[in-house]
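S.,

Sequence below, as promised.
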Amino acid sequence: MTGQRDSDPKQIVRRGYDAVSHHYRADDADPDSHRPWIAELTRRLPAHASVLDLGCGNGVPVARDLAAAGFAVTGVDLSEVQIARARALVPGATFVAADATTVDLPAASFDAVVCLYALIHIPLEEQPALLERIAGWLRPGGLFVATTGHDAWTGTEDDWLGGGATMWWSQADAATYRTWLAAAGFAVERQEFVPEGDSGHELFWAALPG
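The prediction came back faster than expected:
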């Protein structure tokens, strides 16, 4: 791994996922970690709820499974390759190729926002404002399910996943994310450590006041 490079990090992320899309997630992927999260969210949402999958990737498994459960799903991702795959793999959902920090979405239009392994690809200084935007997209009582950093780190990895591209991350520690969520108006219901390799991420379940 190398330190942060003098280049536009969002373009590194976009180019990286364009290049490694199939290395990162197969068409029929069903990660063990995601299954209980999607199942819990499905149980908690009202019928025909509207859900935003922020950083949706190729739409699998989150958008796919939520759309199959009868929810109105909108996916947003920076990578046009990922979005093209999502549109083909999950035709029952709506997908937008856009930057999460600037995408134009209606206020109070979603019952839940899911953001898994995506917030950590956004420049750290932009993340608190994005959490405030997410709160604005949710209806009162809306749920937010997100993975964040567990430890603070910013840097890159060359030839990520063997796909020939560089990837970039920037994350705060879990305590900072909890503070940012509270500042954005969320009540944190629970958080848990999600191991990955020698480290891992933090999973947050949070809600807006009803």
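The two ends are 43 Å apart (CA to CA).

Coffee later?
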